[in-house]
Amino acid sequence: MGNVSTAQGMLPVARRPVSGVRRKRSSGSQILEFTFVFLPLLGFTTVLLDTAWAVMAKATVQRAVRMAVRTGITLTSSQMTGSACLTDTVKGIVQSDSLGLLNGATGLSYIKVNYYAPPTSATGSVSDVSTCTTTGTNCPTIADVSGNMIQVSVQGLTVTPLMPRIFGFKMANDNAPLLVTVYAADVIEPHDSPPCVGTAP
Fold first, then answer.
1. What percentage of the chain has pLDDT greater than the value 70?
2. For residues 13 and 177, what is the distance between their CA atoms, to the nearest angstrom?
């Protein structure tokens, strides 16, 4: 029983009863409607999680190499711990700031540290001096002297997706990992006592 507003007031209006046949026919509609909504929602959620995970992983590794560069350009021999050299110290900083993405020997193998000497003339080119521990043939300077550039990179890191990517019911799930490669570089600051280079890259 419902009500209709008129100038004289509210008048009762009888509602048509719902038949048992109609009620029985519509009894499963809620489950069907939920299924139609749930599948696209699940797909959008999967895409959102995988995208957020990929962005977070790359941003974390990018920050790690940048922090390692910023520390590496200021370190001197007196700041080294024990017999540690600059290359190993820089790689350790990348590992410690990567939130576990570069743990262990496998993670360490993705980290590269290169050293470059600036050109000696206007027409010269940059020299890769990563393996130069003393001056000599093909080594115009020692790798980590002031004025040289240190480049820290993570190359070919594989990041497994949180959920498989589904493109169709008749297609196999895509579990291919995301490949992450990031770089950071800066000029080594002036100092009188450069640390040992270590094994680079």
1. 84
2. 65
* Calpha distance 109→111 (Å, rounded): 6
One-letter amino acid identity for 108?
L
| AA identity, residue 120 | T
Dihedral sign from CA coordinates of 168, 173, 179, 180: positive
pLDDT surpassing 90 at residue 77? no
Predicted pLDDT of residue 19:
56
CB 174 within 8 A of CB 167: yes
| Stated pTM of the model | 0.73
Measured distance CA(39)–CA(16) in Å, rounded: 36
Residue 133, helix vs strand vs coil: coil
Longest dimension (CA), the chain: 109
Return d(Cα 107, Cα 138) in angstroms, integer.
31
Closest C-alpha among 80, 67, 84, 81 to residue 152: 67
pLDDT of residue 20: 56
**CA-CA distances (angstroms) from residue 151 to 70, 72, 175?**
10, 10, 32
Q: Are 151 and 113 in contact (CB under 8 A)?
A: yes
d(CA 11, CA 142) in angstroms, rounded, equals 99
Whether the per-residue pLDDT at 94 is higher than 60: the answer is yes
Find all residues with CB under 8 Å of 189, minimum gap 6, and list them: 73, 74, 146
